[in-house]
Amino acid sequence: MQSRSLALVGILALAVAGGVGFAIADTGAQATATNSTVSVSADATVERAPDRATVTVAAVGRGETAEAARNNLTGDADAITTALDDAGANVTSSRFQIRPEYERTETGSEQVGYVAIHTVEAETGNVSSVGTLVDTAVDAGADRVDGIRYSLSEETRQSAREEALTTAMDRARSDAEVVAGAEGRTVGSAVSIQTSDSGRYVVYAETAAAGDAGGRTSIEPGTVTVDAAVSVTYELN
User: Is the domain of 121 the same as that of 175?
Assistant: First the structure.
């Protein structure tokens, strides 16, 4: 007997876990041997190509004083932001900081000046454009790529989760039927179900830039995974 599928991806990088449980009560059940149960656990993993990407770049300046460091910034954050906007990205944050910079010495460390960092973060749903966004930011004055994160949109993640849960439930019932069959019994309705899900919802990529002056940045994202697990108790007939 096949159960109706419920719904779940397993990507490096940043993991999330949660659990939901519910019980289905049979008000007519009686505590007899014929109402014994079997409990099984199963899991499943679904992979998806990322459909969201976040690029973080920065302009950096150094100097003997905080003011000098700020004045020595390699690029204007406004110019970087405008360039990314024009390239179709959605700039989600812009952060600026100045801090002392230290250098290790034989006796410990000593301050050698200040470093100013202006960080800009942008998101896009066009995953294939990430390399172009990196080049656009660098051309506008960014001299550091702090990170590239690939992830799933909520709609894609939910679809993957549902698929994984469906597969996990199918596997759970199949295992229960094998166990029940070995005892000459058949599997009835589920009387309790618990689910949990996790996965590699975010993957990180390193940029790979061509070495010649005319080269452009090329990036290949990995897949994102969603995992689902179920623990099911079935009534035995």
Answer: no
Contact 120, 91 (CB under 8 A): yes
Residues 146 and 177 in one domain: no
From the list 194, 188, 232, the residue with the least C-alpha distance to 35 is: 188
* DSSP letter assigned to residue 211: S
How many CB atoms are closer than 10 A to CB 80?
26
Q: Are residues 220 and 167 in the same domain?
A: yes
140 and 176 assigned to the same domain:
no
Q: Positive or negative, the Cα torsion across 70, 72, 76, 77?
A: negative
8-54 per-position pLDDT tens digit: 333 223 233 333 333 333 323 333 345 699 999 999 999 999 999 99
Find, among 223, 224, 229, the residue nearest to 165 by Cα.
229
102 & 70 share domain: yes
Are the C-beta atoms of 111 and 100 separated by less than 8 Å? Answer: yes
Asked whether the beta carbons of 41 and 170 are under 8 A apart, the reply is no
**Cross-strand partners of 2:** none
Model confidence pLDDT, tens digit, residues 76-90: 888 999 999 999 999
Sign for the CA dihedral angle at 154, 164, 49, 224 comes to positive
Q: Retrieve residue 207's tokens.
A: 């940029």
Rounded CA-CA distance 135/216 in Å is 7
Residue 26 is part of which domain span?
Answer: 18-50+153-236
Please tell me whether the overall predicted TM-score, pTM, comes out greater than 0.85 for this model: no
In whole angstroms, what is the distance from residue 151 CA to residue 139 CA?
Answer: 26
